Structures are given as C-alpha cells and as structure tokens.
Amino acid sequence: MWEWIAGSAAAAAGLLGWMSKEAYGYRLRREEVCSPRIPDAFNGYKILYMTDIHRRQLSERKLRAWLEEADCVFLGGDITERGVPWERLRSNMQLLRKYAPVYAVLGNHDLKAGKEQVRQILRETGVVLLSDKSVELVKGAHRIVLSGIQQPASKYHPYTRYRGRNREGRYHIVLVHDPRWVKDRTDYPYDLVLAGHTHGGQIVLPLAGAVKLEKFYQSYKAGWYDLPGKEDGATAGPPFLISKGFGTSHLPLRLGCPAELHLITLKQKP
After folding, report:
1. pLDDT tens readout for residues 40-71
2. Annotated domain spans of the chain
3. In angstroms, rounded to a whole number, what is the distance separating the alpha carbons of residues 15 and 232?
4. pLDDT tens track for 63-91
5. What's the sign of the alpha-carbon dihedral 188, 191, 195, 200?
6. How large is the C-alpha radius of gyration of the chain?
7. Residues linked to residue 265 through DSSP beta bridges, in sequence order
8. CATH number of the domain at 2-267, out of 3.30.70, 3.60.21, 3.55.50, 1.10.10?
9. d(CA 270, CA 267)
10. The pTM is what?
C-alpha cells in the first residue's frame, strides 16, 4: 500500500511539474499572413503578438532575440490582473518598449485591476493604448492601419459600434481581447483580426477537451479561423487568430495547452 501511495505521489508531482512547465514556458509560434493587399514596404514586416500575460514577469534574456527581430509588438489584453504589483506591469512594459513600438488593448482583468492606473503606466512607458482607436503604422512611403477595440466592462455589456477608421482602404489589422466581439457579426471589412482571452481552455484533457470553457468559446477556442466575408459572399473574410495566451488565470498551471506567443510575418502574396 505504501508503495502505491509513494508511486501515486510521485506521479502527481511529475504531473504538476509538467503543468507548471507548460504554464511558464516560452513557446514561440512563427506565423505567416499572406495577402496581395500588403504594401511593398510591409512585405516581411514582423509583429510580436502576446496576450494574457496576467501575473508573469517577462524575461529579457528569453525574449531578446525575438524582440530584436520584431518591427513592433501587439498586446492583446489582460496584461496584468488584480493583486499584481504595479511595478511588475511597469517593468514588463519597459522591457517590450525598449526594443520596439508597442500597441495594446485592455482585457477584462486589466479593467478589474484598475483601468486608470493601467492606462497611466502604459502612457508613462510609451505604450500606445488603442481603446476604440485607430493608428497608422508607417514604413517607408507606405502605411497600414491598426485598430484596437475597447473591452466592455463585463460580458453582459455590448461592444460599442466602433469599426475602426480606415479612410484610404489600407491593409487593416484589428486587435481585440475577447473573441466574443465576432459574435453575430456578418461583415468584417478587415484584413487580419487578433484576439486572446480564452487561454485555449488552459486545462485540456485528452478526449474530454477543455475542462471549463463556455459554449461560444468551444467554437472559437484557439488557433486560426476564417471569418465570414461580405454578406453577398463575393469577398472572403479575414484570417482570425485566437492565441492561447502567455499567462494563466486562477490556477498557475496548464495542461495540453502550453503558453505561447507569436511572431507574425506579413507576406505580400495571395
């Protein structure tokens, strides 16, 4: 019996160690987004996309090579959470901003942590917050548009009607924290949509799948999706990436769903 107890304890310790490794690893996914609408100067443009940092302290040693490779950094919300020291958020933002321009949207945990304090730290560290706001990214003589969608106060509040501003019909990227933004929409006049929030389920069991994931997110859990095009069906919709995220929520563990960040390269081709 004691041997069985010892064996079970060893197995449990091994499983917890593995789950902690998945939660705190640095797994980079290299992605390509191809479109003939990408302007010449942005062919090969690289975006380091990170979402749902939550409580993690970023390591410059582990991120340096990817940050040096990136042209800019996009943060998809939940960059902190309630109870995290403000200096950790400041340190993380200073690290990213040291290497490249940084653009961010807020997530539900950022709002709970203290929206105004988060906004202040982003301003002080030079991070551009996109809250129902669009900016133009400039390279050489060419420009693309980045729009950030404001996170509602709770899942029971609707999104605003903001659709992003893109008067010249430029290549258009949308950054939104919660994939729920796409619910019940039928037209996506964008070229790329990036989201997070789901953590991919965080604890994903073989066969059974994610332990806790609301019905909508079972359809939009993690990975790449094709959104609908225009209602007439003549134009294809944009690619839609939902990241599994870099941090954890509630339990500091992951299973079958390792933490990830993305280095997205824009390619000017069909």
Report:
1. 999 999 999 999 999 999 999 999 999 999 99
2. 2-267
3. 50
4. 999 999 999 999 999 999 999 999 999 99
5. positive
6. 19
7. 32, 46
8. 3.60.21
9. 9
10. 0.93
